[in-house]
């Protein structure tokens, strides 16, 4: 199976590269940005085109959101012309107002923010114009490296002694980039073998948590590991922010459909964080050795 991956420096793209390098049945072709002509798509002739998500679109500049939407729609046109399936990953932030219960996969986001609505328009065009698509809604991705690698950036700030501010009243399911990559490859392998299970799917980690609690747990686990290595580092503090004073905003994705269609289980984010911290500490020791 051959895949064309856009935005090569994105943390999800790098996770796909790591996973594919350990397998002999997947070929990846990487493009640095989101620009893609029908000619280039036809030249590569992949079994699918994968577009990583725009991180935190809710706080991005409107021009950046507009540019992302236009790039995705240009890719859609190329996919229609060449006949290549499109995989577009999107942030759970499109569910701007959240929901009291887990959000089912058939629920199309209806944000109030104009920029976010522009991304919904793109999703509508994909659904209406090209049946062979996957729209994969992801929880906040975390990884050690790559663009928008939340965990890597968090570790850098903590090690530098900087204060980290994180919302205490926004609840979501953090998603390991490695776990998301594994799930995507599994889904696409089944599609490649004739599953024809196109449509929208949710993919997130288990156990809803706030950004503040996530960051606090990372800090505690990092401190414990550093102490075990005999290091004494004054890590930066974590400060809780509150934006929704009446009640927490819950942005929790129900991932039942991806389990039923592809047998993909959600990965526990605490386990994934632990594995990444172990890898980070090992790399740190090797550098200092």
Automatic annotation (TrEMBL):
Pathway: Carbohydrate biosynthesis; dTDP-L-rhamnose biosynthesis. Residues 61-279 form the RmlD-like substrate binding domain. Its cofactor is Mg(2+). Binds 1 Mg(2+) ion per monomer. GO terms for cellular component: cytosol. GO terms for biological process: dTDP-rhamnose biosynthetic process; O antigen biosynthetic process. GO terms for molecular function: dTDP-4-dehydrorhamnose reductase activity. Its EC number is 1.1.1.133. Keywords: NADP, Oxidoreductase. InterPro entries: dTDP_dehydrorham_reduct, NAD(P)-bd_dom_sf, RmlD-like-bd. Belongs to the dTDP-4-dehydrorhamnose reductase family. Catalyzes the reduction of dTDP-6-deoxy-L-lyxo-4-hexulose to yield dTDP-L-rhamnose. This is dTDP-4-dehydrorhamnose reductase. It comes from Bisbaumannia pacifica.
């Amino acid at each position: 199976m051959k895949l064309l991956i856009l935005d090569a420096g994105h943390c999800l793209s790098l996770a796909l590269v790591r996973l594919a390098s350990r397998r002999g049945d997947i070929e990846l072709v990487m493009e640095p940005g989101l620009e893609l002509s029908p000619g280039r798509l036809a030249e590569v002739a992949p079994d699918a085109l994968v577009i990583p998500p725009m991180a935190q679109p809710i706080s991005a500049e409107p021009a950046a959101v507009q540019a992302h939407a236009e790039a995705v729609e240009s890719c859609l046109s190329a996919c229609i012309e060449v006949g290549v399936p499109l995989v577009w990953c999107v942030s759970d932030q499109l569910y701007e107002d959240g929901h009291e219960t887990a959000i089912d996969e058939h629920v199309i986001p209806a944000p109030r923010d104009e920029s976010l609505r522009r991304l919904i328009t793109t999703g509508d065009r994909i659904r209406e114009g090209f049946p062979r698509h996957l729209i994969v809604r992801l929880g906040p991705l975390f990884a050690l490296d790559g663009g928008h690698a939340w965990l890597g950036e968090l570790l850098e700030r903590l090690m530098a002694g900087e204060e980290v501010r994180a919302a205490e009243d926004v609840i979501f399911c953090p998603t390991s980039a490695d776990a998301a990559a594994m799930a995507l490859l599994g889904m696409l392998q089944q599609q490649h073998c004739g599953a024809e299970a196109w449509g929208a799917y949710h993919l997130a980690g288990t156990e809803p948590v706030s950004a503040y609690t996530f960051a606090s747990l990372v800090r505690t686990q990092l401190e414990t590991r550093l102490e075990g290595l005999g290091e004494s580092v004054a890590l930066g503090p974590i400060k809780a922010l509150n934006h929704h004073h009446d009640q927490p905003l819950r942005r929790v994705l129900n991932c039942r459909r991806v389990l039923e269609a592809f047998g993909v289980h959600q990965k526990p984010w605490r386990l994934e964080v632990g594995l990444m911290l172990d890898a980070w500490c090992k790399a740190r020791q090797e550098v200092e050795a």
